[in-house]
Amino acid sequence: MKLLAFSSGVCYTSIVMINVQPVTQRTLGRFIAFPDRLYRADRRYVPYMKADLKRTLKHLLFEKQTYHALLALDGRGRVCGRVLYTIDSNKRAATDRCGFFSMYECVDDLTVSRALLSAMQTHLRALGAVMMEGPYFPYDQDNRRGFLAEGFDRPPLILTSYNPPYYIDQMHDFGLCKQTDALAYAIEAQPERRAWVGRLAQRAMKRSDFRIDVADMSRVEDELRDIHTVMEAADTDVIYQQTPSMDTLRTVAVEWRRFLDPELILIARRNSDNAPIGVVMALPDWFEVFRAMRGRMDARGVIAFLRTRRHIHAVRAILQYVIPAYQSRGVNAALYDRLWQTIEKRRIDYVEVGTIMEKNALSNESIRSVCGRLARVYRIFYKNFSKEESLTSGGDAT
């Protein structure tokens, strides 16, 4: 078998026999380790923190048993592909029998991708799924959602996807169609535009009588409740996922506690009754730290953590919601103006916002209005098992 180099690592060619098998407790380590070999030549790649990932996968695969995972092996027993999947409700398709897949990784060989995706599809259909969609991880909805389709020029930011460009071709080859694109914007420091946004923010807060508060971590339960209230009120058909429950938000708050920065979590509240009307949350780009740590908390990783944790140079805004009654009234501008004021006090040289579904015209326009430039496109794919053809509400295969 011949090995060929490609931009993200190595790929196998002329693979004839592919053995796809379920992941067991004995092979879980190989599932976790495979991307390190696939991306070993790519300095942009950011590994999962391996101890955290192992704990999460053991919980989902072997304790709750709500997820399934597959490994594709070549004739010599080497891992050449992997995928994780589950069945859950799909808001867009109005079904509770959607097979969502995530953590897809594969060498640049259609023989392997076909075998891996075919095995997953067969199992999902046996479990009662009527379609599959991904990459999307219902357990952690904003973590590496969609395949990167445009914007390979810089490393990924925290919780965003990174993959070889050929993954898009592998999806099309197996008959998956574009469901939607999720967009990320770089916020550029244009002095005149920034001054205009600042004036707009001041007028909006005065006219609609609201203020911007920094999250108070001593009142986490109250803050989470206000965030949930805004998200639930702002839920529309153009928002991809279901509004998370309070229990889910509590879980996220605990799991993300190391990454949260209260000064980057902003809540807009009415002055008259303190009711929440909007929220923006940003995270420092801890992927810069994870990359230096190689996803490991060994001695080398600890040293890298200590050296890099205070020198993060990018921020990603991952969440923005405004309740319908206050949309188009400058609330987003006020939230981002305050966020930008905080960022300007730090040594941050890159700010990214998203991802935002391409059909969410209001949110996309609000980001463009505050100096947003399209920076990356992430693509979510689907396949309808019952008809093997495009859903009326989906995209096309090109």
The CATH class of the largest domain, by name, is: Alpha Beta
State which percent range the strand residues make up. 25-35%
- The CATH topology of the largest domain turns out to be Aminopeptidase
Helix and strand pattern = EEEHHEEEHEEHEHEHHEEHHEHEHE
For the CA atoms, what is the radius of gyration? Answer: 22 Å
Q: What's the architecture of the largest domain, going by CATH? A: 3-Layer(aba) Sandwich
Shape category? globular
Biggest sheet character? 13 strands, mixed
Helical coverage, percent range: 25-40%
- How many distinct domains? 2
Molecular structure report:
It is a single chain. This protein has 398 residues and is α+β, with helices and mostly antiparallel strands. It has two domains: 2-179, Gcn5-related N-acetyltransferase (GNAT) (Aminopeptidase); 189-370, Gcn5-related N-acetyltransferase (GNAT) (Aminopeptidase), CATH 3.40.630.30. It is built from eleven helices and 15 strands. The protein has helices at 28-38, 50-63, 110-126, 166-173, 191-208, 220-234, 246-255, 287-293, 299-308, 331-344, 361-369, and strands at residues 2-6, 9-13, 19-22, 67-73, 79-90, 95-106, 131-134, 147-150, 177-187, 210-214, 265-270, 276-284, 314-322, 350-357, 372-384. Strands 3, 4, 5, 6, 7, 8, 9, 10, 11, 12, 13, 14 and 15 form a 13-stranded mixed sheet that branches. Helix 1 (28-38) packs across helix 2, helix 5 packs across helix 10 and helix 8 (287-293) runs antiparallel to helix 9 (299-308). The longest helix has 18 residues, at 191-208.
